[in-house]
From TrEMBL:
It holds the Pfam family Pyr_redox_2. Its cofactor is FAD. Keywords: FAD, Flavoprotein, NAD, Oxidoreductase, Redox-active center. Gene3D superfamilies: 3.30.390.30, FAD/NAD(P)-binding domain. Belongs to the FAD-dependent oxidoreductase family. It is an enzyme of class 1 (oxidoreductase). This is monodehydroascorbate reductase (NADH). Residues 398-478 form the Monodehydroascorbate reductase 3-like C-terminal domain. GO terms for cellular component: cytoplasm. PANTHER family: APOPTOSIS-INDUCING FACTOR 1 (PTHR43557), MONODEHYDROASCORBATE REDUCTASE, CHLOROPLASTIC_MITOCHONDRIAL (PTHR43557:SF6). Residues 66-379 form the FAD/NAD(P)-binding domain. It catalyses: 2 monodehydro-L-ascorbate radical + NADH + H(+) = 2 L-ascorbate + NAD(+).
Length: 496
């Protein structure tokens, strides 16, 4: 940078700092420094580090933070990585987290984390972000080395949009230049009055929940899993690894109603039954009862029947954690904080990413929330990249979900599936677990909208996003006559 430019940068920084001190509009400072490009950025981080320099002292006092991420989960870990990649983390980024540990790959909690002790369960620090997508393992040291301040176990309790100020549970007041809301979801709970909080009743969202569940599994004999969704399927499969008597109870007539067709669900249910899992379908919980020791002892169903259990795991959905940011703008249809295609809320310098963001799903022209890790990772990266580079690039997401169960050593059959696209239209299903299954969702114009594959090879899985993204017109009669999954995938591939 030339000395004239450097002087200009200093002038802009102090002008913005003065403005920030007067108005609380801290983002002007970062804007002024960022407008100078890489040189300005370097000046900004040097200033940030030199706390005694006049610009830094005026702007970066104890209360002010240039970039604040609220929530230390999956999206936060990937956002932090993007800040580092752009040289914008050091001394400039603060993460305010409710949890006691740095961001980790949450999917592990109902997979490797629940392996029985003799089957080498996953434990932290093994699965901190970003290892789930082949990236670096960002431990607490990584955050320190990269100059990122992380406030642990100090959730944000209040937010003032006018002054862009946060208050944490320990009483810290932080004025944010740019604020990235990545508070994710919280597990939906059964009401306390029907036994939802009894000892022995578990919910699973974070590593503390998983630790508590693992300690119960070690003593358990009879497990009831409430809910036939992702948590229900993954936890029930894990319980099989501990040789526990396991019953899944849910209100619908088949498992995974959000995604699976009845016929696909039937195949999975049969496989679970072969592993000893029992199903109670179409049933609602009236209450959970406690034994004389105060711990849960049974689930009473609305029809009066009783299912005994010493441990209950509840997986009845998740709710976006919008509090205390409701005033930023909540989407009434899908819940969550409403953002545009660059994750900007209606308030300048406030963004939302991951599970909590209600964003435009461009491909299908609707506002959506996606509660899966691929979106958490990609939305974080997209938001921070567009924020730091001022590129106006719209997020164009292709929905991708997956699961893996019965992965532990010695299981009779490992299960792994992936789904890409939109599960709308009629379906064509091919194959069985012996050896693999595919389901294609096809709309009334014969366009392939969504595709599911169980037990594919990596080459087969890599075809799915291409199909779901380009939505080719397929020959339905030909697809229906496919003699194997390989054959069906080839027919779909040839329509690209
Ligand atoms: C057990 C489990 C298994 C899963 N498995 C899969 C899977 O196999 N595949 C898949 O695609 N997806 C899976 N998911 C979903 C995936 O983990 C989420 O989509 C992803 O974690 C979302 O990332 P996020 O950062 O938006 O939210 P989260 O990862 O939930 O992070 C949010 C963070 O914000 C914190 N927070 C909340 N409120 C505040 C506050 N006021 N102040 C400070 N911090 C706050 C929370 O404590 C949490 O640490 C799973 C989810 C769970 C719970
Ligand atoms: N592989 C994955 O992608 C994965 C794995 C685990 C968790 N998750 C995420 O974690 C969150 C929680 O998962 P989840 O399985 O709890 O949610 P879910 O929405 O997948 O399933 C909820 C299930 O709960 C049942 N249910 C709803 N209300 C009920 C009630 N009152 N009583 C009994 N059953 C009821 C229904 O069977 C429904 O299918 C979701 O965001 C999910 O996407 C994802
Ligand atoms: O995406 C994922 O990350 C973790 C694990 O791979 C991290 O090592 C896991 O189980 C996933 O499904």
């Amino acid at each position: 940078m030339t000395s004239a430019l450097r002087q200009k940068a200093a002038q802009m920084a102090s002008a913005a700092a003065a403005a920030a001190a007067g108005t609380g509009c801290y983002s002007q400072t970062s804007w002024a420094l960022r407008r100078l490009g890489a040189g300005g950025g370097a000046l900004a981080s040097a200033a940030t580090r030199r706390r005694n320099c006049s610009v830094a002292a005026a702007v970066f006092d104890n209360q002010n933070r240039e970039y604040v991420i609220v929530g230390g989960g999956n999206a936060a870990g990937y956002a932090a990585r993007t800040f580092v990649e752009h040289g914008m983390a050091d001394g400039r980024l603060c993460i305010v987290s409710k949890e006691a540990v740095p961001p980790y790959e949450r999917p592990a909690l109902t997979k490797g984390y629940l392996f029985p002790p003799e089957k080498k369960p996953a434990r932290l620090p093994g699965f901190h972000t970003c290892v789930g997508s082949g990236g670096q393992r960002q431990t607490a040291e990584w955050y320190k080395e990269n100059g990122i301040e992380v406030l642990y176990e100090d959730p944000v309790e209040a937010f003032d949009g006018k002054t862009q100020t946060l208050k944490t549970s320990s009483g810290k007041i932080l004025k944010c230049g740019s604020l990235i809301i990545s508070t994710g979801c919280a597990a939906a709970r059964l009401p306390e009055k029907i036994g939802g909080d009894l000892p022995g009743v578990h919910y699973i969202r974070d590593v503390a929940d998983a630790d508590s569940l693992v300690s119960s599994l070690g003593k358990a004999k009879k497990i009831v899993v409430i809910g036939g969704g992702y948590i229900g399927m993954e936890v029930a499969a894990a319980a099989c690894g501990w040789n526990l008597d396991t019953t899944i109870i849910f209100p619908e007539d088949h498992i995974m109603p959000r995604l699976f067709t009845p016929s696909l669900a039937k195949k999975y249910e049969e496989l679970y039954e072969q592993n000893g899992v029992k199903f109670v379908k179409g049933a609602l919980i009236d209450k959970l009862d406690a034994g004389s020791d105060g711990r849960v002892s049974s689930a009473i169903l609305k029809d009066g029947s009783v299912v005994e259990a010493d441990t209950v795991i509840v997986g009845i959905g998740a709710k976006p954690s919008v509090s205390p940011f409701e005033a930023v703008g909540v989407n009434i249809e899908v819940g969550g904080i409403e953002v545009d295609s660059m994750f900007r809320t209606s308030i300048p310098s406030i963004f939302a990413i991951g599970d909590v963001a209600a964003f435009p799903l461009k491909m299908y022209d609707r506002i959506a929330r996606v509660e899966h890790v691929d979106h958490a990772r990609k939305s974080a990266q997209h938001c921070i990249e567009t924020l730091l580079t001022s590129q106006a690039k719209a997020y164009d997401y292709l929905p991708y979900f997956y699961s893996r169960v019965f992965e532990y050593e010695g299981s009779s059959r490992k299960i792994w599936w992936q789904f890409y696209g939109d599960n709308v239209g009629e379906t064509i299903e091919v194959g069985n677990f012996d050896p693999k299954i595919a389901t294609f969702w096809i709309d009334s114009d014969s366009r392939l909208k969504g595709v599911f594959l169980e037990s594919g090879t990596s080459e087969e899985f890599s075809l799915l996003p291409k199909l779901a993204r380009s939505q080719p017109i397929v020959d339905k009669a030909k697809l229906k006559s496919a003699t194997s999954v390989e054959d069906a995938l080839e027919i779909a591939r040839s329509s690209l």
